[in-house]
Automatic annotation (TrEMBL):
Residues 134-151 have a biased composition (Gly residues). This is Uncharacterized protein. It comes from Micromonospora halophytica. It comes from the Bacteria. The keyword Signal applies. Keywords: Signal. Residues 45-56 have a biased composition (Basic and acidic residues).
Amino acid sequence: MSRTMSKKHLLAGLAAAGVLGVGIAAPTVAFAEDATPSPSASTRQDTDRHDRRAERQAEFAEALAKELGVPTDKVTAALEKLHEQRKADRPERPSTEDRQAKLAERLAQAVEDGKLTQEQADAITKAAESGVMPGPGGRGHHGGGPGMAGK
């Protein structure tokens, strides 16, 4: 493998790990702990996902350490430090209560405007709270649904 190709793989791996950012554009990576778990999510699936992610990160740290000629534990510590820094730099996510209140406001306005019946609004609230759809308690984007983002 050429030196250039090796550097490309290294940069791609760093971008995938979410550790690039100073002077290099890298995609934002959402970490598993960032997602709000829904009541319907399987604990076993979450555990499996976490285990697979931890295994990939360990493999990546080992490969990166080998490429850089440094101990694996040093790379692992650096990656963890960068992850914590990125986590601290992210804006705090609204609480479930805040998201529920915003959804309730939007639904009340939709009922008042005649776009929904109260029964429909109640059904949407129940679905969001039970994790059936994005919104308070559910997974997915945080806009509450099409046409409601940012309102």
